[in-house]
Amino acid sequence: MALQFIGIDPNTDKDHCPTVWVDDETQEIVIQGWKAGPDLEAQARAAGPLPDTEAVVRIPARMAQIIREAADAAAGVQ
Question: What ranges do the domains of the chain cover?
Fold first, then answer.
């Protein structure tokens, strides 16, 4: 796996922060975010199952452009 750093929450303390990468080998977007609390996780489970191999994370809306960049990078869009 070769992770390409895309961006970090611009309002971060650079230590505990949402971050976005792209895996260059699999063309997958990799996201680090805040763990969902029990209420948010329950809401997500109401929409469908949450397998043990998956997690619900939160990231701020201000990172939308960073996620767009990651989607373009994963798709090979320049």
Answer: 3-75
